[in-house]
Amino acid sequence: MKYFNTCLHLGQRQIKDTSSKRWLVAGILTAIVCVPFGLGAATMARAAGKDAKKGNAAAYKKRIRQSKVFSLTGIGLGLPFITAILVVTLLGHSAVTSSGKDDSTFVENSDGEDTVSAFVESSTSEHITVSTPEYKQNQISANYIYLGCFEDNKPRDLDGDEYNFGDDLSVENCNTYCSERGYKYAGLQSGFFCSCGTSYGSYGELDQDECSSVCAADGLECGGFYSNSVYRTNYIGCYENDREEFDHYVDLPYYEFTPSSCTKQCSKDGYRFAGLRSGWFCYCGNYLDRFDEAPDDECDWGCPLNSQLSCGGDFQHSVYNTSN
């Protein structure tokens, strides 16, 4: 028996393990780009090492082959996926930074306070833009009312949504952006920055020469350094419709349903007001006094393709002025 065990031990030592550690490392690296296949490759390589110690040549070769297949497949699947993510990330970063290609900057310093610098003439200045989702303007027919030049500070005077338009800032763009989101006031600052609010003037009014920046998109006044050119948007407010309804219904396709499209159609049909309800319905009318005003937070329905827009409530209308 002792002789037999000695022979068996010598037979086991004849299997030279030259691959299991190498493919174990390959499996771990594969897991970086494709976890399931990387773990499978590492598991098979580890098992192959155990088979080599037991002297099981057939099992050893089989598991090494399986480890190779897992690793190569994982790399083949994972690398294109990682490459695609990197390309999308780089393109997105390029799009964001290109919006700051003018000489205006919006930066945040170490103590958390932001600083708006209007038209900084420096080729070495770093441009850091406000991080906001892409905004596509929908033109609407409306006469926005200019309210004056007002000081801004921290916290913001207009403390609602905000957007960095860069060279695309215009009075129309900023007012449309704010009114579609259910804000009554829009502020343009430093020639590129737009902010929205339900109130304004908390820091006081300034002389008109403090709002001397110019909007690149329309050549109109666009605020100044920590000063807002404030406008009254065409958003009127949230109104109940439990007893009364508007005079005219407009059937808009869901992919075109926005406050802008509803307001534009009501204006075209000759009505003074547009009302959006339940995220899907567009109404037009000439009389608003028969409706009771509701709190703005009751008009909490978004629009079909953009939940950030104000498209009424369960039994409430988000009402807009068509300027007719």
UniProtKB/TrEMBL annotation:
Alphabetized UniProt keyword annotations: Glycoprotein, Membrane, Signal, Transmembrane, Transmembrane helix
Protein's cellular compartments: Membrane
Transmembrane segments: 23-48, 69-91
Membrane topology: Single-pass membrane protein
Annotated signal sequence range: none
Residue span(s) of domain WSC: 143-234, 235-323
GO terms under cellular component: plasma membrane
One Pfam family linked to the record: WSC
Taxonomic superkingdom: Eukaryota
PANTHER family from the UniProt entry: KREMEN PROTEIN (PTHR24269), PROTEIN SLG1 (PTHR24269:SF16)
Name recorded for this polypeptide: WSC domain-containing protein
Lineage, top ranks: Eukaryota, Metazoa, Spiralia, Lophotrochozoa, Bryozoa
